[in-house]
Each structure stands twice: as C-alpha cells, then as structure tokens.
C-alpha cells in the first residue's frame, strides 16, 4: 500500500485528541463525578460527556468537513470521512475507580476503518494503527513497539476472553454462544482491553456480545494490522451488529463454527 501523508496528519490529530481526552478524564477520575443511567440502562458520567464534547469541538475546528459518530451524542454531519469515538470506554470501571478504561477513536473512510487509537491513561499505554502500516503500542517511556498476534492454532487451548454472565444480553442465543465459547476455549481473567490483548499476543480470542461501533472500530484495525482478524459472530465485517469476534486469525473460523452451532 502506498504511503498516505493525509493519514499521517490524521494520526497526529488523533494523538492530540487522545492527549486532550486523557487530561479531561483524569481530572474527573476517582472523584465524586455525576453519573446517571441512559435509556438502554448503561452508565454514563459527566466525564464521558465532557470528553466527547471537547473532541467534537476540536474535530469541528480541525476537520470541519468530516462527520463524527460518538456514543453519547450520536452522529453529526455526513461525509465519506467519519470519526468514531468512545470518550470513555469502560465507564463502569472508570466510575468505580478502576484502571481498565480509556479512549477509543477511529477514522472511517468510505466505509473502511483506516486508523485507530486506543489510549489507557491509568496504565499509561497507547495503542494505534494505520491501515497498511502496522500496529504499535507505547508505554510511559514513549517508545513505540510493534504489535503482533500470537501463533496459536488450536481453539481448545486458545486463551480467550468471553464476557461473564452478568454482561450477557437477554437473548438466549447469546447465552448459548457465550457458554459454547467458554467451554471450547481456555478463558483467562480479564486484563485491560481484551481486543488489544489479542493484538499484543496475550489472547488468541476475544468476544464481545454487546457493543456499539464506537466499542469496535478502533480495536478492529489494531487487531487486523497486528496480523489478526475481526468479524461479528456471523463472520461479517460489521461494526453495527452489536457483537464482535477478535482473534489471531488462526482460530477465527473454528470459533465462528462453534458460534454457528450454538
């Protein structure tokens, strides 16, 4: 793939957005932040809204012709270029004072995710990828290290993340899928963001049964650029199906076959 200097500028902007988001979210972290339940029952805090508002304002100034889709404030604008934002991914953990939350930001061009940045301020780790240029992670040292999925090939021994029962959606098929994947793999305790751990080689498989496009877009390109694979549980590349399968690629088809039998 030829080098796209426009994406260099977009990545620089995404990193500035991540810096701004970290500053705002940390200013609310482990304080008595206002919170409430949305119509779907999920939690939102004043910090989520503050971060998303700031990022939208910056994008309006720096990319006025681009559309924006965010978890808290929906879609703004229409364009072949669209930024997809989760201001605080892991709001429940954030509100509880836990460390496993962060910012997810992706850029979609003509229906394809071309850039993703996932920042974890408490862990001081930032993951990113640009389509065709690999995936990377930097810690507090600032040194960028390339990401690569594991080489595991057997589903039964695949280290996996499967949502716990309290996070299962109400439909019975989702319950059967979760049980089948938990029984057919080797689940390990949840550490940080499961999809990013697939990209880093810590898991072979991570499954989300609930999630909007803002939960999935940025991790999808990072996993793919690390050599892995993303789809929904039906095998389609779809950000809007509400579920996601991230894998090292080797165990993906077998995992999908297991879900199809559930």
- Provide the CATH superfamily of the largest domain: Fructose-1,6-Bisphosphatase, subunit A, domain 1
What is the oligomeric state here?
single chain
* Largest sheet descriptor: 8 strands, mixed
Task: Kindly estimate the percentage of residues that lie in beta strands according to DSSP.
Answer: 25-35%
What is the 3D form? globular
Separation of termini? 39 Å
- Succession of helices and strands: HEEHEEEHEEEEEEHEHEHEEH
Number-wise, the strands total 15
Biggest β-sheet: strands ordered side by side in the sheet: 4-3-5-6-7-8-9-10
Average of per-residue pLDDT values: 94
Q: Class by helix and strand content?
A: alpha+beta
CATH architecture of the largest domain: 2-Layer Sandwich
Question: How many domains, in number, for the residues?
Answer: 2
- What's the Cα radius of gyration? 18 Å
By CATH reckoning, the class of the largest domain would read: Alpha Beta
Would you mind describing this structure in some detail?
- With 262 residues, the protein is an alpha+beta fold.
- It is built from 7 helices and 15 strands.
- The strands form 3 sheets. An 8-stranded mixed β-sheet has the order 4-3-5-6-7-8-9-10, sandwiched between helices. Strands 12-11-13-15-14 form a 5-stranded mixed β-sheet, sandwiched between helices. A two-stranded antiparallel ribbon has the order 1-2.
- Strand 1 (35-37) and strand 2 (43-45) form a beta hairpin.
- The longest helix has 24 residues, at 5-28.
- The protein is globular, with a radius of gyration of 18 Å.
């Amino acid at each position: 793939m030829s080098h796209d200097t426009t994406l260099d500028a977009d990545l620089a902007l995404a990193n500035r957005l991540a810096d701004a988001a970290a500053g705002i979210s940390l200013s609310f972290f482990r304080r008595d932040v206002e919170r409430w339940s949305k119509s779907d029952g999920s939690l939102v805090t004043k910090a989520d809204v503050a971060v998303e508002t700031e990022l939208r304002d910056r994008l309006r100034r720096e990319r006025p012709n681009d559309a924006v889709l965010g978890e808290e404030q929906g879609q703004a604008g229409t364009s072949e270029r669209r930024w997809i934002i989760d201001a605080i991914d892991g709001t429940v953990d954030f509100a509880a004072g836990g460390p496993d939350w962060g910012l997810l930001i992706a850029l979609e061009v003509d229906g394809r995710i071309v850039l993703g940045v996932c920042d974890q301020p408490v862990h001081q780790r930032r993951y990113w990828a640009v389509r065709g240029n690999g995936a990377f992670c930097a810690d507090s040292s600032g040194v960028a290290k390339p990401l690569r999925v594991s080489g595991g090939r057997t589903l039964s021994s695949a280290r996996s993340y499967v949502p716990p029962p309290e996070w299962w959606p109400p439909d019975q098929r989702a319950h059967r899928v979760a049980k089948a994947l938990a029984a057919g793999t080797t689940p390990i305790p949840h550490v940080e963001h499961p999809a990013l751990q697939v990209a880093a080689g810590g898991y072979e498989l991570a499954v989300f049964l609930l999630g909007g496009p803002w939960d999935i877009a940025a991790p999808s390109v990072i996993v793919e650029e690390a050599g892995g694979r993303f789809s929904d549980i039906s095998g389609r590349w779809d950000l809007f199906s509400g579920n996601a399968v991230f894998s090292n690629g080797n165990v993906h088809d077998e995992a999908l076959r297991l879900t199809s039998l559930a």
